[in-house]
Amino acid sequence: MNLVTIERHILEQQKLFPEASGELTDLLTDVAFAAKLVRREVVRAGLVDILGFAGTTNVQGEEVKKLDLFANEKIINAIGQHGRFAVMGSEENDGIIIPPKNETGNYALLFDPLDGSSNIDVNVSVGTIFSIYKLKGDDPGKASISDCLQRGSEQVAAGYVIYGSSVVMVYTTGNGVHGFTYDPTIGEFLLSHENIVTPKTGKYYSINEGSYAQFNEGTKKYLDYIKEEDPATGRPYSTRYIGSLVADFHRNLLTGGVFVYPPTTTHTNGKLRLMYEANPLAFICEQAGGRATDGRNRILDLQPTALHQRTPLYIGSEDDVIVAEEFEQGVR
Ligand code: AHM
Ligand code: MG
């Protein structure tokens, strides 16, 4: 039996790049450690009902935090204190975070601490998503928001952790996509999915169809199309929609399929966040052979202008994403 921990795997990957300083290895190891801390709390989530509701005080007299805020704090503390990141951005914080000892960090971290938070209370999978950039300048003490607002194509690493029936961490440094399953008996993430390649076409479509009335004509026509009977193109596709992006993305990555969060009348620019959700998943998806766009443009080419900016998202198996885009663009 050849057990490979995530730390060992990251080290081995780094050897492929002799010029690498090893910093990225430390960064990813920190992220994996933070994920273990978040996991510990996520699996105890139901116990909040016994130990005290969020927003009240627990038996130790401490205030019980909502799990997403707790995860946010854990990640900031676990990762921020090592001085490897000069600046951080979280979906839960309005502005950038400058961690202590930032003067030694050469990287920026952007993350969504607990994505799919509406699913926490009902035992449905949630996830953590992260994205790493090198600073644009060479003075970490001067790191600023512009280090965070880089195009997705500048990412040096990205990944996510899914807290599901098992806990899985997936990452890329631009050299394929690799997945690790957490073994709670030894406290390690073990290599379980090496070099993930997503199918060119799948059989699932994932979209919140409850918002049908809010979709534009292109999206409505696409939904009619995907449900038509046509064995030659594998239609009708099956619906799969969890409402946790990480879980919907992870399933489609492994089995093939397309996830769409289009513009709606309430979310005219889509709902999902470019920096915390779309960019990291787009990097992973492309590395696995898939495609990610906003319906017109490659996600990784978009120039961000704000930390919390939103984008429509069409992501998954290449052929399926292209079809969805064609409807969005009105060419079908
Ligand atoms: P969150 O960051 O507040 O959890 O929102 C993001 C989530 C995604 O995980 C998911 O894909 C999407 O919102 C679902 O939205 P909707 O309920 O509109 O379908
Ligand atoms: Mg989110």
TrEMBL record:
Binding site for Mg(2+) 1: 91, 112, 114
Recorded superkingdom: Bacteria
Pathway in which the depicted protein is active: Carbohydrate biosynthesis
Swiss-Prot/TrEMBL GO biological process terms: fructose 1,6-bisphosphate metabolic process; fructose 6-phosphate metabolic process; fructose metabolic process; gluconeogenesis; reductive pentose-phosphate cycle; sucrose biosynthetic process
Record carries keyword Cytoplasm: yes
Protein's UniProt keywords contain Metal-binding: yes
GO CC terms of this entry: cytosol
MF terms (GO), sorted A to Z: fructose 1,6-bisphosphate 1-phosphatase activity; magnesium ion binding
Alphabetical keyword list: Calvin cycle, Carbohydrate metabolism, Cytoplasm, Hydrolase, Magnesium, Metal-binding
Cofactor binding note of this UniProt entry: Binds 2 magnesium ions per subunit.
Residue positions binding substrate: 115-118, 208, 241, 271
HAMAP family reported for this sequence: FBPase_class1
Family: Belongs to the FBPase class 1 family.
The protein's name: Fructose-1,6-bisphosphatase class 1
Species of origin: Chlorobium limicola
